[in-house]
Amino acid sequence: MKTSLLKSISFVAFLAAATPLHAADPVVANVNGQKFTYSQVMEAKANLPKQYQSAPDDKIFPVLLNQIVDTNLIEKAASTEGLENKPEVKKAIEKAKEGIIAQAYLLEKVKDKITDAAIQEKYNEVIKNFPKEKEVHLRHILVKDQAIAQSIIKALKNGTDFKKLAKEKSTDGTKNEGGDLGFFRKSELPKELAEEAFTLKPGAYSQTPIKTDFGWHVIMVEQLRDAVPPKFDEIKTELKGLMTQEAVVALVKGLRATAKIELFDKDGKPMPLEPEKEATATPASKELPAPASPQEKK
To answer: Which has the closest alpha carbon to 235: 109, 113, 124?
Structure first.
């Protein structure tokens, strides 16, 4: 139940932030006579992992365009072989249909609750509770192994410019911005980076490589300042997604309250009902930016 609910919540949140239709919606692909428009291609952006959704449209569009072409070719080839008539495929289609109907129901029920006025009210609540703490403006150079990171630190000690090294050595998209990651509060960074970043003075860089799940980092602090609350337009979409999640959770909670539900373990023994958890996303927070999408609050 929880897995299905989370998938539905995620889908609805993505729909809430879907790319609007363009006034001009040109055909961008013609695959064996089947035409695809720009808006159809960009709708797929909502299904990407969150960190990639912030990538500029002109960067992600070619990827999505080729993906929709490949998917269409595969689907047509499968249909030619009659795979949709196989029992296991029919079953999967039926399950997908159930999920789509459930998602449509959730969206229909919550969409009128997420008005601009409601989002503004939520923003005011976030700003009122915004923590008073420091935030650091970071640059980093991300590489695959420790030895390369150590050679970068050696080059920095010899006077090589950090931005220059980032452009030459870093393996993620921030290299084009000289490794610029933007501003972060301590709680927003991976523990390994946070511990080092908040001990450095502006202009200083890490003296040893830092290992995270992303790889090996060399970081430099550009600036340390009091944390600045995000502007309304900067988090409006995220707030909308959070409010959608909260509305969905409340809706499902109401459905469960009026339903007769009995749960059993694999041996047929009764199981207690576990209450649904409420949405806990924090709109004022952010993750370490993914490649090609450094975020900076100014």
So the answer is: 124
